[in-house]
Every structure is written in C-alpha cells, then in structure tokens.
Predict the structure.
Amino acid sequence: MPIIKKRAWDLPESAVTPEHVFLNRRQILAGLGFAAASGVAGGSLFSRAAHAADDPSAELYPVARNDAYQVERAITPEKVSSTYNNFYEFGSHKQIASAAQALKIRPWEVKIDGLCDNPQTIGIDDLLSKVQLEERVYRHRCVEAWAMTVPWSGFPLADLVKLAGPQAGAKYLRMETFFDPEVASGQRASWNPWPYVEGLTIEEATNELAFMATGIYGKPLAKQFGAPLRLAVPWKYGFKSIKSIVRFTFTAERPVSFWEKIQAAEYGFWANVNPEVPHPRWSQATERLLATDERVPTRLYNGYGEQVAHLYKDLEGEALFM
C-alpha cells in the first residue's frame, strides 16, 4: 500500500469543498440573486456586478481550486478581509476599501524588462490569456501580527519568469507598483519613496509557492487587495506582497524595497516569518486571526518551511527574518 505524506497545509478530505460544488457556485449564486461569497451588505463594492463593470476578466472566475494548496484554518470571511487592508497608496489606515475604488484597472499594462530574453510590455488581459489560472488557499501573515486565510486565484510567478526568459546574470526580480498621485491620495505623501518597490531572488520567484494573484473569493481581485495583479508569497510577511504591479525587472543587483528605504532597521529584504525574532516594537510570537480575534502561535515561515527553508541555506550573516 502506498504511503501518502501530507503537506504542511493539507486539510482533511472532509473539510475540502467538493469540486462540483465549487465550479457550480457561480450559477447557483446568480440564480439566487446574490453577490458570490460577498458577505457585504448589498454586495456594493465587492460584488461580481461591480467587478464586471470595469474588469473584462470577470468571466474567467471562479477557477478550479488546486487542492495541493490548503490550510488547516477556516477561510476568513470576505466581508472581513475586504474591509481591513494595508494599501499605503490610498492611506496609512486599514479602512481604505472605498478610497481604493478610484483605482483604474483598465487599460493596465505590465512591463517586463532588464536581464531577460523576452522584454515586453503586455496588457493584463493578454497576460491572462497566456497562463492557466487556479485557486490556492494560503495563510497571510502581516508584520503587524494579524493574519487571515484567503482563496487567491492566479498563476505561479514561475510562469511569468518563464515567459520573460531570464538571462544567466539575473539574480533578482524587482517589482514596481503604479504611480498616480491624482488617483492614489497616499502617494501625495512626498516623504515616502514612491512608487512601491519589492524584490525576490530568482530562486524565491520560481519557488512553487510564489503566486501572482489576479482574483480572490472566486472573483477578480477587489481593488483594495491590489487589482489587477499582486504578489502572494505566503511564507513572508505581507509587506513583501506588492500590489497593483506594473513592472517586473530582472537584475543582477538586489532591489532596495519600499519599507527598507523607510526603516531598514525594522523591515529587511528577506522578511521571512519567524516567531522567535521580534519586531523592534512588538512580539511576533503570536498572531491575531481576523474575524475571530483569536490569538494563535506564529509558525516558522508561516508554516511553509518544508517548501522554502532550503532557499536560505548558506546565508549566514543575513537578517532573514525581518
């Protein structure tokens, strides 16, 4: 008899939504007249109808869930995660959902450049036509010690790397978000180093967990989550998961990220989760779950160490965890 070794995030079969139920939920919810999985009164900002008005990719969702990526926690209700967001382009508080609706997500072009064989500028809908979308359930851990669990839709970042064809000298992937102070009021704060920049090593970018999110809760990304294209790297603190990306640059030099420029003593390049390494101003030993406010122990690499710990061997002297 074969022995099946479960991954760190696996759910018991009894807790997994059957595929036929998941794939049919659009028709069921439409027939009932509800906004799919919204949980927001009237479905106003976060309903499928609201997305369809300015997002032609709405018809692509929901997508099939990849059951290789599950977690043991309950999914955070959309009405909670959709109204508690960090998106500094629209303000330094958590209630930026309404302000983020000013973001114009079409047309949206993504530039791929630097040390790669296939530099190009591609529209988001053309990019979506070149990849296979899937849904993954990931834990998200903020450096502020709160956490949520959400079903991201999107594609592996490795697919974008393959599309670009990085050259031998490309050691890092630098990512950059949009810059439009007329739309994003937070970008009028001239003391911050806009636009938002983040970076990964090529090895991190091509790890199986690194994910480009284009949707959530069976719909295109709501704007407050970083529409139309954001990064999800679940073993790192959330500030690494850059939102509303417009540029990917392959480079030999390590990028200096937004938060490193602001306060390098508190926010490093690697930013891996470690409960034993406190932030200079608070403990990281536990985390608060959105929706329940339950405090639970933080896990090394946010529970994904089996898949990513090998990326950080032979890096003595590096601040890997903040």
Observations:
- Confidence is low (pLDDT under 50) at residues 1-5, 11-43.
- The chain has one domain: 13-309.
- Residues 13-309 form a domain with the Sulfite Oxidase; Chain A, domain 2 fold (CATH 3.90.420.10).
